[in-house]
Please model this.
Amino acid sequence: MTETAQRGFYVVYLVAPDGSRTFLSLEQGTTEIYDRVGGRRYLEVLEDTATRDVGLLAREDIDGLITGPVDLDGTTTMTRGYQAGNILAIEYGRGEVPDEEVLATDLTRLLVLYTALVEARDQVQADEGDAEDPSGVESGIEAKRYRWHRRAERSPSLARDAKQIHGSRCQVQACGKRLVDLYGEVGDGYIEAHHLTPFADLDGRPTELDPATDFAVVCPDCHRMIHRRREPYTLAEARRGLVQLASARYVAIQIEQGLRGGRVAQRDRGSR
Model:
């Protein structure tokens, strides 16, 4: 799900400054790469990433599409980035723009390829261990649903909005900690967003999510435990687990105190 033209990748129309040509492009976010690697390397990184993405789409229908940089006669930093950041494109020359039906077909084709690239990149992340599957998650549609679920949690804008709405205190009630209380200033405002819809219930990639109702905020410890099993624990289940743990600790403390008291009493009797 693309939320900004500054990061990730998206489908866009690019028009040359003189209007001589227009490209329908599967394009990368230039600003993100420029900010990450700087002006000396951003064009190289954009081109390398585009080459990798074309490889990820090798099994898709990309015949006849422009791969790699497009020519926009660009001189500015951003325009040169748009040129280098093209993954796949269709070119329309001046006076050669097709009718609406063809334009709609071309747009649908690029959107299908966009969806395929999302899935392919997700799979690469999963293979590299970036998305650790919980115990019991199998391959195929189940693993795909799990990646949808985790990708929703990693959405920068949704996570930010969820934190603004819910605050920075863990919403697992038996936990309720704020990291600022544990770590001071470095933990101020830090919390993780958790997507509440179980991934097994997802019929497709979630595209319309409400940070107020579809997300909760939880501390990193609780978040890891919630995802420890095939079907993530609910907040209520996580709370019960903490309550049971606290009860077990309380009983252990009471037993230990009782044993200590018994040993003290025995020493007292022995000293008389």
Notes: Strands lie at 9-15, 21-28, 66-67, 86-93, 192-195, 215-218. The CA atoms of residues 192 and 218 lie 5 Å apart.
